[in-house]
Design brief:
597 residues; disordered C terminus; 2 strands; mainly alpha
Length: 597
């Protein structure tokens, strides 16, 4: 089902379809490529056909035909591609020979195999004119791409000419919009080849040895030269080859003549992030939803249950479609299967939208929590930068040191405030993008209710889950006692071992449900508080310098008091008098025109 969803969504929406898989129950995740999805689908269908009964083999054959038809549709879309923004989209009736070969490149790049005979039969049946050479060109293109990918995996095994040829093929695949998401795969393979080729090609090896850093100007020029050389080809026009060599020599000369620069420590400190890791830009709403499901067990369970129901509905629809007559209107079974699958698709989309927004809000909550230690770190860094702990000799030096210290603190805290404002802006943008109707207070209230109550995370659900544990435990205890005693109440069937196991499984489900809520509900409430704060946040002016100085002094005294020995209880009056004096001193600092002594 995942493979069919990829083929349909990537073809119809031109989306960068991504997936992740975990081998350790969600502790770590790695990208799941389409070629792995296809291999998993093939293995699952083969295992079902080999180990199942007649009905299982029939279902596996139906699903295999459906998957093959989807793959043929996807490949046909690539063969007869039309730009999405073309004002007069025209899809040719027959693919050109170049399109057949490029289709083989795309198939191998995405799925890592050669198209099989079943896919080719489905594909050629779409065209009125027999495509005798099309299948051959398709396989040839796939073989070329597989060879290029093999060189990208182990570039040390290839000669310079082979690496340049593979680089040119991948470069052509990454250039333009017709390959959709596949440009990322092509760019990764290009990078692998370039990292090795730049060190072994006779024209670039000396440059890479003298300038090994990939970000240096000379090294980047050497890589650009190799790209140009791969597109020109070894038998290309001499003038183009001369121009490429001249551009490389000019760039290397300019890089060697540029004097080195010593970084300014103060400038480096100013360029450091105000809050480490923030503002954080999530890759997309789908990825955000996947990340939230790692945080919230309840969200992960809801998504898994919906996907399982959608898988069963899709299987029922495939079986109903295979058994129906294509020349007759949809049967009631097909209509019901279509409606069921459509409603489950909508339910899954709504789940994804809610989980994505919660992840955006959760990132904001993390940023707000990280702001406080960042402010403390800013004060420490300012003290170290201005050497504030040293005792100046004169009052003027003391005032200058204090002013320099506060200037550093003011700059750092202003940057922290700007970072939080930017993270709030990203969260509000995500809210408007995912739930466009949340522009009014009523719409925002509806979103909030959907995120909490309609997701099964409300306070009532929490209490019900807790009560369910007690009820399940009492039922299990009663079932175990009746099973051990062997007594049969009048009018009831005897308690069997299966009844006891079912009661024990019900208790385990209730405990798991409550444990999930204990993790999911606080995280959801924390994200909702951050979301509410971002929606109702009004930018305010910066804190007054005197007030900021008073706050920092109070925090310093608090930290000193925490580390100092406890004061004797026989001196309460002196402590109270000192607090009164400090409060009066702070209020005087906040008055305009009053300078602290």
């Amino acid at each position: 089902m995942a493979m069919r969803w990829y083929l349909t969504a990537e073809r119809e929406e031109n989306l960068a379809v991504t997936g992740h898989v975990s081998d350790d129950h969600g502790a770590t995740w790695r990208p799941l490529l389409p070629r792995e999805l296809m291999a998993d689908a093939e293995r699952a269908l083969a295992a079902t056909a080999d180990d199942g009964g007649p009905q299982a083999r029939q279902s596996a054959g139906i699903l295999r035909d459906a998957l093959t038809a989807e793959a043929a549709d996807w490949l046909d879309h690539r063969l007869r591609y039309v730009q999405p923004d073309d004002p007069t989209p025209y899809r040719p009736d027959e693919p050109s020979p170049e399109s057949w070969r490029r289709g083989g490149h795309i198939w191998a790049l995405a799925l890592g195999t050669r198209p099989d005979e079943q896919v080719l039969r489905h594909l050629t049946a779409r065209f009125t004119t027999p495509q005798t050479e099309g299948a051959t060109l398709l396989r040839t293109g796939a073989a070329e791409m597989l060879d290029a990918l093999a060189l990208a995996e182990a570039p040390a095994h290839g000669e310079s000419a082979q690496l340049l040829s593979a680089l040119g093929l991948l470069n052509r695949m990454a250039f333009g919009f017709e390959t959709g998401q596949l440009d990322t795969l092509a760019e990764d393979a290009q990078r692998s080849i370039l990292d090795h080729l730049v060190t072994v090609h006779p024209a670039t090896a000396p440059v890479a040895e003298a300038h090994p850093e990939p970000g240096q100007g000379a090294n980047m020029a050497a890589r650009a030269y190799l790209r140009r050389l791969s597109l020109i080809g070894p038998a290309g026009e001499p003038r183009l080859l001369d121009d490429a060599a001249a551009a490389l020599a000019e760039a290397v000369t300019a890089a060697e003549q540029q004097p080195g620069r010593t970084p300014d420590p103060s400038a480096t400190a100013r360029q450091a992030p105000a809050i480490p890791g923030y503002p954080k830009h999530l890759e997309g709403d789908l990825q955000a939803a996947a990340q939230w499901r790692l945080i919230s067990p309840a969200a992960r369970r809801a998504a898994e249950q919906t996907m399982d129901r959608l898988f069963r509905a899709t299987t029922v629809l495939a079986e109903a479609t295979a058994a129906a007559d294509v020349h007759q209107p949809f049967s009631p079974q097909q209509e019901a299967a279509l409606l069921s699958r459509g409603s489950l698709h909508q339910e899954l989309d709504e789940l994804t939208a809610r989980h994505a927004l919660l992840m955006h809000a959760g990132v904001l909550a993390d940023a707000e929590a990280a702001a406080e230690p960042a402010k403390h770190a800013a004060v420490v860094a300012a003290a170290q930068a201005t050497e504030v702990e040293r005792q100046p000799g004169t009052a003027a030096e003391m005032a200058a040191a204090r002013d320099a210290f506060m200037a550093h603190v003011n700059e750092a805290e202003d940057r922290i405030a700007k970072t939080l404002t930017e993270q709030r802006r990203l969260t509000v943008e995500a809210l408007g993008r995912i739930f466009p109707y949340a522009v009014t207070s009523t719409g925002r209230h509806t979103v909030r209710r959907n995120l909490l109550e309609n997701s099964g995370l409300g306070l009532d659900a929490y209490h019900q889950a807790y009560r369910a544990i007690g009820e399940s435990a009492r039922r299990l205890e009663s079932a175990e006692a009746a099973y051990r005693s062997g007594t049969v109440p009048f009018g009831r069937p005897p308690v069997s071992h299966d009844d006891v196991e079912q009661a024990r499984a019900a208790l385990q489900r209730a405990e798991t449900r409550f444990a999930d809520l204990r993790i999911s509900r606080p995280n959801t409430l924390r994200a909702l508080r951050a979301l509410d704060g971002a929606v109702h946040h009004r930018p305010s002016g910066s804190e007054a310098p005197a007030a900021r100085a008073a706050r920092i002094a109070a925090q310093s005294r608090e930290r000193t008091a925490e580390t100092a020995p406890a004061a004797p209880r026989t001196q309460p009056a002196a402590g109270a008098a000192e607090q009164v004096r400090q409060a009066h001193h702070s209020s005087a600092q906040q008055q305009p025109g009053v300078r602290p002594a």
